Amino acid sequence: MEPKEDTPEDHKRRSRFVKRLVQSSTGKETPLVGHPNGIPKTIVQFWDNSYQLPTDVEDCIGTWKALEVRGYKHLLFNQEEAKLFISNKLGERHSRAFDKCYHPAMQSDYFRLCYIYINGGFYVDADDVYREIEIDHLFMDGRLKIQPLCYDIATGLMVKPSIFTTLGAHSPKWIFYFNNNPIIAPARHPIIDKALTQATLFLEYSSGEVLPEIQSTTGPGNLTKSIFELDINYVQLKSILHVLSDWENIATTKWDLSYRHDSRNWRLSNQKQLKNEGRESE
Protein backbone atom coordinates (compact mmCIF):
# COMPACT_ATOMS: atom_id res chain seq x y z
CA MET A 1 0.00 0.00 0.00
CA GLU A 2 1.36 3.41 -1.00
CA PRO A 3 2.05 5.64 2.03
CA LYS A 4 -0.32 8.60 2.33
CA GLU A 5 1.00 12.12 2.63
CA ASP A 6 0.83 13.65 6.10
CA THR A 7 -1.38 16.65 6.78
CA PRO A 8 -0.59 19.50 9.21
CA GLU A 9 -3.15 18.00 11.60
CA ASP A 10 -1.28 14.66 11.49
CA HIS A 11 1.87 16.42 12.69
CA LYS A 12 -0.04 18.21 15.46
CA ARG A 13 -1.58 14.96 16.72
CA ARG A 14 1.82 13.27 16.84
CA SER A 15 3.33 16.23 18.68
CA ARG A 16 0.59 16.11 21.33
CA PHE A 17 1.07 12.36 21.65
CA VAL A 18 4.84 12.69 22.17
CA LYS A 19 4.33 15.53 24.63
CA ARG A 20 2.10 13.31 26.76
CA LEU A 21 4.65 10.48 26.72
CA VAL A 22 7.58 12.76 27.51
CA GLN A 23 5.98 14.78 30.29
CA SER A 24 4.48 11.74 32.03
CA SER A 25 7.74 9.77 31.99
CA THR A 26 8.86 9.00 35.55
CA GLY A 27 11.56 6.43 34.89
CA LYS A 28 9.45 3.79 36.73
CA GLU A 29 7.75 2.16 33.72
CA THR A 30 7.25 -1.62 33.84
CA PRO A 31 10.04 -3.10 31.71
CA LEU A 32 9.33 -5.33 28.73
CA VAL A 33 9.38 -9.01 29.59
CA GLY A 34 10.74 -11.71 27.33
CA HIS A 35 14.30 -10.38 27.14
CA PRO A 36 16.01 -11.90 30.19
CA ASN A 37 19.45 -11.05 28.83
CA GLY A 38 18.57 -7.41 28.20
CA ILE A 39 20.25 -5.65 25.28
CA PRO A 40 23.61 -6.68 23.76
CA LYS A 41 26.46 -4.49 25.00
CA THR A 42 27.40 -3.52 21.46
CA ILE A 43 28.01 0.10 20.42
CA VAL A 44 27.26 0.48 16.69
CA GLN A 45 28.21 3.46 14.52
CA PHE A 46 28.33 4.36 10.81
CA TRP A 47 30.51 6.50 8.56
CA ASP A 48 30.02 6.03 4.85
CA ASN A 49 33.73 6.21 3.92
CA SER A 50 35.64 4.87 6.90
CA TYR A 51 38.84 4.82 4.85
CA GLN A 52 38.78 8.62 4.85
CA LEU A 53 37.42 9.23 8.31
CA PRO A 54 37.82 12.92 9.28
CA THR A 55 40.11 13.32 12.27
CA ASP A 56 37.56 15.28 14.28
CA VAL A 57 34.89 12.62 13.71
CA GLU A 58 37.39 9.90 14.58
CA ASP A 59 37.98 11.65 17.90
CA CYS A 60 34.24 11.52 18.65
CA ILE A 61 34.07 7.83 17.75
CA GLY A 62 37.09 7.17 19.95
CA THR A 63 35.14 8.22 23.05
CA TRP A 64 32.75 5.29 22.43
CA LYS A 65 35.41 2.84 21.34
CA ALA A 66 37.07 3.41 24.71
CA LEU A 67 34.18 1.44 26.25
CA GLU A 68 35.80 -1.76 24.95
CA VAL A 69 38.00 -1.85 28.06
CA ARG A 70 34.77 -2.11 30.11
CA GLY A 71 33.53 -5.14 28.22
CA TYR A 72 31.58 -3.44 25.46
CA LYS A 73 31.91 -4.34 21.79
CA HIS A 74 32.36 -1.45 19.35
CA LEU A 75 31.50 -1.71 15.65
CA LEU A 76 31.99 0.93 12.95
CA PHE A 77 30.36 0.19 9.59
CA ASN A 78 31.06 1.93 6.29
CA GLN A 79 28.68 2.06 3.33
CA GLU A 80 29.89 -1.19 1.74
CA GLU A 81 29.83 -3.08 5.04
CA ALA A 82 26.36 -1.76 5.87
CA LYS A 83 24.97 -2.84 2.50
CA LEU A 84 26.54 -6.29 2.86
CA PHE A 85 25.00 -6.67 6.32
CA ILE A 86 21.57 -5.65 5.03
CA SER A 87 21.81 -7.93 2.00
CA ASN A 88 22.92 -10.94 4.07
CA LYS A 89 20.51 -10.47 6.97
CA LEU A 90 17.41 -8.96 5.35
CA GLY A 91 17.64 -9.72 1.65
CA GLU A 92 17.22 -8.03 -1.70
CA ARG A 93 14.21 -5.88 -0.86
CA HIS A 94 15.95 -4.06 1.98
CA SER A 95 19.20 -3.89 0.02
CA ARG A 96 17.38 -2.09 -2.80
CA ALA A 97 15.84 0.29 -0.27
CA PHE A 98 19.31 1.07 1.10
CA ASP A 99 20.46 1.83 -2.47
CA LYS A 100 17.76 4.51 -2.66
CA CYS A 101 19.25 6.31 0.35
CA TYR A 102 20.98 9.12 -1.57
CA HIS A 103 22.89 10.71 1.33
CA PRO A 104 25.17 9.21 4.02
CA ALA A 105 22.83 10.51 6.74
CA MET A 106 19.97 8.63 5.12
CA GLN A 107 22.10 5.49 4.77
CA SER A 108 22.96 5.80 8.45
CA ASP A 109 19.28 6.21 9.38
CA TYR A 110 18.21 3.14 7.44
CA PHE A 111 21.17 0.99 8.46
CA ARG A 112 20.64 1.59 12.19
CA LEU A 113 17.08 0.32 11.92
CA CYS A 114 18.28 -2.77 10.05
CA TYR A 115 21.10 -3.54 12.47
CA ILE A 116 19.14 -2.99 15.68
CA TYR A 117 16.18 -4.97 14.33
CA ILE A 118 18.40 -7.98 13.56
CA ASN A 119 20.94 -7.92 16.40
CA GLY A 120 19.88 -5.38 18.99
CA GLY A 121 22.39 -3.08 20.65
CA PHE A 122 23.17 0.60 21.08
CA TYR A 123 23.34 2.75 17.94
CA VAL A 124 24.80 6.24 18.34
CA ASP A 125 25.79 8.85 15.76
CA ALA A 126 29.45 9.29 14.89
CA ASP A 127 29.41 12.96 15.90
CA ASP A 128 28.29 12.32 19.48
CA VAL A 129 30.86 12.49 22.27
CA TYR A 130 30.47 10.09 25.20
CA ARG A 131 30.65 11.86 28.57
CA GLU A 132 32.06 8.84 30.41
CA ILE A 133 29.21 8.27 32.83
CA GLU A 134 27.75 4.88 33.75
CA ILE A 135 25.48 3.42 31.05
CA ASP A 136 25.14 -0.23 32.13
CA HIS A 137 21.54 0.38 33.24
CA LEU A 138 20.52 1.13 29.64
CA PHE A 139 21.10 -2.52 28.71
CA MET A 140 19.29 -4.18 31.62
CA ASP A 141 15.80 -4.61 30.13
CA GLY A 142 14.11 -4.89 26.76
CA ARG A 143 12.60 -1.43 26.50
CA LEU A 144 13.54 0.76 23.55
CA LYS A 145 15.45 3.79 24.82
CA ILE A 146 15.23 6.96 22.74
CA GLN A 147 15.72 10.69 23.20
CA PRO A 148 12.86 13.21 23.07
CA LEU A 149 13.30 16.52 21.25
CA CYS A 150 11.31 19.74 21.03
CA TYR A 151 11.61 22.38 18.32
CA ASP A 152 10.34 25.94 18.70
CA ILE A 153 8.95 27.19 15.39
CA ALA A 154 8.88 30.78 16.65
CA THR A 155 12.60 30.99 17.41
CA GLY A 156 13.94 28.32 15.07
CA LEU A 157 15.76 26.79 18.03
CA MET A 158 15.59 23.56 20.01
CA VAL A 159 13.98 23.78 23.45
CA LYS A 160 16.10 22.51 26.34
CA PRO A 161 14.96 19.15 27.79
CA SER A 162 14.88 20.65 31.29
CA ILE A 163 12.14 22.96 30.01
CA PHE A 164 10.00 20.87 27.66
CA THR A 165 9.98 17.70 29.82
CA THR A 166 8.43 19.58 32.76
CA LEU A 167 4.82 18.53 33.32
CA GLY A 168 2.50 21.14 31.82
CA ALA A 169 5.17 22.98 29.83
CA HIS A 170 3.56 24.12 26.59
CA SER A 171 3.70 26.50 23.67
CA PRO A 172 1.56 26.33 20.51
CA LYS A 173 4.79 26.84 18.59
CA TRP A 174 6.53 23.76 20.01
CA ILE A 175 6.86 20.53 18.06
CA PHE A 176 7.54 17.43 20.16
CA TYR A 177 9.14 14.41 18.51
CA PHE A 178 11.60 11.57 19.11
CA ASN A 179 15.16 11.52 17.86
CA ASN A 180 16.56 8.40 16.18
CA ASN A 181 19.85 8.94 18.00
CA PRO A 182 20.53 7.00 20.11
CA ILE A 183 18.56 3.83 19.45
CA ILE A 184 19.00 1.28 22.23
CA ALA A 185 16.91 -1.87 21.93
CA PRO A 186 16.89 -5.66 21.82
CA ALA A 187 16.56 -7.49 18.50
CA ARG A 188 13.09 -7.67 16.94
CA HIS A 189 11.71 -4.84 19.05
CA PRO A 190 8.16 -4.04 17.79
CA ILE A 191 8.81 -0.30 17.42
CA ILE A 192 11.98 -0.86 15.41
CA ASP A 193 10.11 -3.43 13.32
CA LYS A 194 7.43 -0.84 12.56
CA ALA A 195 9.96 1.91 11.79
CA LEU A 196 11.99 -0.32 9.47
CA THR A 197 8.87 -1.52 7.64
CA GLN A 198 7.63 2.03 7.21
CA ALA A 199 11.00 3.42 6.04
CA THR A 200 11.30 0.60 3.51
CA LEU A 201 7.86 1.41 2.09
CA PHE A 202 8.66 5.12 1.89
CA LEU A 203 11.85 4.36 -0.04
CA GLU A 204 10.14 1.88 -2.35
CA TYR A 205 7.49 4.41 -3.33
CA SER A 206 9.90 7.32 -3.75
CA SER A 207 10.22 8.39 -7.38
CA GLY A 208 13.43 9.22 -9.18
CA GLU A 209 12.10 12.67 -10.04
CA VAL A 210 11.91 14.06 -6.49
CA LEU A 211 14.29 12.79 -3.83
CA PRO A 212 12.54 11.86 -0.57
CA GLU A 213 12.93 14.12 2.45
CA ILE A 214 15.46 12.54 4.82
CA GLN A 215 13.97 13.35 8.21
CA SER A 216 10.48 12.05 7.49
CA THR A 217 11.53 9.07 5.34
CA THR A 218 14.21 7.39 7.45
CA GLY A 219 14.97 9.74 10.34
CA PRO A 220 13.28 11.08 13.48
CA GLY A 221 10.02 11.81 11.67
CA ASN A 222 9.70 8.19 10.59
CA LEU A 223 10.47 6.87 14.09
CA THR A 224 8.00 9.26 15.72
CA LYS A 225 5.27 8.32 13.24
CA SER A 226 5.96 4.62 13.81
CA ILE A 227 5.50 4.96 17.57
CA PHE A 228 2.32 7.00 17.11
CA GLU A 229 0.81 4.45 14.71
CA LEU A 230 1.73 1.34 16.70
CA ASP A 231 -1.54 -0.41 17.45
CA ILE A 232 -1.20 -0.78 21.23
CA ASN A 233 -2.62 1.15 24.15
CA TYR A 234 -0.75 3.77 26.16
CA VAL A 235 0.06 1.48 29.10
CA GLN A 236 1.46 -1.19 26.79
CA LEU A 237 3.55 1.40 24.98
CA LYS A 238 5.08 2.61 28.25
CA SER A 239 6.13 -0.97 29.00
CA ILE A 240 8.23 -1.23 25.82
CA LEU A 241 9.51 2.35 25.57
CA HIS A 242 11.70 4.36 27.92
CA VAL A 243 12.12 8.08 27.27
CA LEU A 244 15.73 9.20 27.77
CA SER A 245 15.07 12.71 29.03
CA ASP A 246 18.62 12.88 30.40
CA TRP A 247 20.51 11.87 27.23
CA GLU A 248 22.44 15.16 27.26
CA ASN A 249 24.12 13.93 30.48
CA ILE A 250 25.33 10.81 28.66
CA ALA A 251 26.52 12.29 25.37
CA THR A 252 26.99 15.63 23.65
CA THR A 253 26.65 16.29 19.93
CA LYS A 254 29.73 18.05 18.59
CA TRP A 255 28.64 20.70 16.11
CA ASP A 256 31.98 22.22 15.13
CA LEU A 257 33.08 19.46 12.76
CA SER A 258 34.63 19.86 9.32
CA TYR A 259 32.03 17.85 7.42
CA ARG A 260 29.18 20.10 8.55
CA HIS A 261 30.41 22.85 6.21
CA ASP A 262 29.85 20.91 2.98
CA SER A 263 27.31 18.62 1.33
CA ARG A 264 28.08 15.78 3.76
CA ASN A 265 25.88 17.72 6.20
CA TRP A 266 22.36 16.45 5.46
CA ARG A 267 20.85 19.82 6.41
CA LEU A 268 22.64 21.31 3.38
CA SER A 269 21.81 18.36 1.11
CA ASN A 270 18.22 17.42 1.92
CA GLN A 271 16.52 16.25 -1.31
CA LYS A 272 19.73 16.92 -3.28
CA GLN A 273 22.27 14.57 -4.81
CA LEU A 274 25.44 14.39 -2.72
CA LYS A 275 28.49 16.14 -4.12
CA ASN A 276 31.96 14.59 -3.89
CA GLU A 277 33.31 16.90 -1.19
CA GLY A 278 35.65 15.04 1.16
CA ARG A 279 34.92 11.74 -0.59
CA GLU A 280 37.75 11.31 -3.08
CA SER A 281 38.22 7.90 -4.66
CA GLU A 282 40.35 5.51 -2.67
TrEMBL record:
Keywords: Transferase. GO terms for cellular component: membrane. One of its GO terms (biological process) is mannosyl-inositol phosphorylceramide biosynthetic process. One of its GO terms (molecular function) is mannosyltransferase activity. SUPFAM superfamilies: Nucleotide-diphospho-sugar transferases (SSF53448). This is Uncharacterized protein.
